[in-house]
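Consortium newsletter contribution from the modelling node. Members have asked for a concrete example of what our holo predictions look like. Here is one, prepared for the hypoxanthine complex that several groups have been discussing at recent meetings.
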Amino acid sequence: EHAPESLPFDETLTTLRSVLPEKLRQPHVGIVCGSGLHTLAAAFREVVEVPYSTLAGFGKSTVPGHKSSLAFGLVGPGEGVPVVAMLGRLHPYEGHKLSTVVYPIRVMARLGVRNLIITNAAGALNPNIDVGTIVVIQDHIAFPNLTGMNPLLGPQIDSKYPRFLPLSSAYSVTLRRFAFLAAHKLQLGLNALTEGVYAWVSGPTYETPAEGRMLRNSGADVVGMSTIPEVVAGKEEGLDVLVLSLVTNKVVIPDQYRSIKEEVEAELAGNPVIRQDEAQVSHEEVLLIGKQKAEVMKGLVEKIVELIAAS
Ligand code: HPA
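And here is the predicted structure:
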């Protein structure tokens, strides 16, 4: 099969034009809301929500904490800037094809979006990064991209795109600066944010300790199951990309394994070892931290949009 996949852009765009008022039809900024973060759109005015189910080519998000609609609205002072947000993203682990996962990003680009702000929930690999920290992503490691799960595998959907997309400067310096300036303007202080490298894994299993250690040793600060397909498609579409990861848990990477041999030895010697259950990450924990930090994330995204609009 060497023909590009046929994607229903005309149909999707026609539907959107028919349901959106004139002033919302050409959003400047696209936003992707991560787990527990769909309240980001509460900062929009004159919101029009369009369910994915009414849009050709869109999948349905099946993950708790994700809705399945596009929210169009205005952000910022005066008339405001038109923006569009994905309330609920699509993940390969739900069974969506990578081309489906990134289709909404391609639609955003065709509506006129030039800047993409992607949020997600992530686990911290770097022991210095605490739960609740927002990490401005500066680079990524995507084992799936390197090993046959790259969203750009296959015939190109448009010959105007480069066949070999460089990703050496995928994360916009301008937008990363705006993130820190927004933290400053909101009086959160620059320390409210930190910078780091995101490792993309397919999930849906959380990492084993050995996998967490490997990712950490590879140079990653946080790990998550999303975002990178959207970053890659966004870069192919020529968008400026910013990624904000909210750390919802620490990845458990013990220095040492418990030695069952030693425990049995001690037990046989009449000194049984009493052990506590080890910590385990859960999606409930991920959603809870998302909820607690949603207000801060919302304020930041809103301010970053204003900085983009003023630039
Ligand atoms: N691992 C992978 N993805 C995640 C995690 C994690 O610990 N936390 C939130 N998303």
